[in-house]
Amino acid sequence: MMTRDWKRRVVITGIGVVSPMGIGAEAFWDGLSRGVSGIDDISRFDTMSFRSKRAAIVQDFECGKMLGRKECWSGSRSVSFALAAAKSALDHAGIEITSENQSSIGVSLGTTLACLNLMAKLDQQALREGPRTTDPALFPDTGVSAPACRISIMFGMRAFNVTLSNGATSGLDAIHYGVDAVRKGYAHTVLAGGMEEICKESFIGVYAQGLLSPGEIGEEEMCRPFDRRRSGTILGEGCAIVVLEDLEHARARGAHIWAEVIGYGTAFDPTASLSDGGGEAGCRAMRLALKDSAVMPDQVDLVFSNANSGRIGDIAESDALRCVFGQSSNLFVTATKSMLGESYSASGALQIAACAMAMEHGIIPPTINCEEPDPKCQVRQLVREPHETSIRIALANSSGWAGNAASLVLSTSDL
User: Fold this and answer.
1) 263-275 pLDDT per residue, tens
2) Which domains does the chain possess?
3) Is 248 exposed, middle or buried (0-12, 13-18, 19+ CB in 10 A)?
4) pTM confidence score
């Protein structure tokens, strides 16, 4: 293994999740590790005019029960997701924000379509009913920066507040930003992650591009990564926030350490099509992440793949995995989007939450619904049942329909 020369090591000490599996890290992990699908019929809006009628939606979510009604006054479901996940992460890490530490705690959140529904409501009021009847309370939360800002305002974090809006890689990008901030000493603790919500507007946009699984006659739509019967992805939603902390600071307060973030890589392919997630950019992102981590490909135990049941994207990622790892017999691969759907900016953060918990528990969550592996997706050791094994180094991938790709590497070595 090559040597690293960093001023500070950054570790994950808390995990907060709002997901189709449930609220909180434990509920999330329980469902994921057992291979439970979070995909169900859509009930939040009418799907009569669409062939696609299913999604991985957060069910029975009541922000008021977690945070109190006054804190959840926002009309944005995205903001509520972010606030609940942030509180869950802080509780999980055992952190209380006080006047002594608030200037050393920052927020870095990735999202792209978070407030699209609220923007549509404001637009409808302003254009159809006129400015005199427009609800002024809607406007502050229509920007993509609203969820992160609301977290900082509610909990009193003052180090910095950043929103990254970079499509599907936003969650991993935001976590990397937080890691970099801790390494450079801008903060000793950062809440970082990604979030996204499903609304009718975002559903229509993805549906119109032909990216969603239409299902088969007499069958429900399924997310089938690397399966020859895959017909498109299924949308998901949720929020995952991890607490990133300087290792020495975490040790000093006796925090439980889940994993260390040791590397990141990102790349872009301007020639990628809407359905070509991963591919050449994914290959470069993984290689850059391994270089940044000072890790050789044969030292990686597990890849949380981006595979989302895309017709072309799954092939592109399988090619990228072979490009980077060859025929390594040590490498396991899993695709948790088979249970969580494609939640765009939230996906990378959900992958990291799952990755850290998999490393802690020594269990790889399965790829469900891949019953007939596609010969064009030659993925060695694709985990299709929960698998117990030691995981010391793991890599998580995110890639988007427009050409972005990012990879983040976690380690439990030397902790």
Assistant:
1) 999 999 887 765 5
2) 11-252 (3.40.47.10), 263-411 (3.40.47.10)
3) exposed
4) 0.95
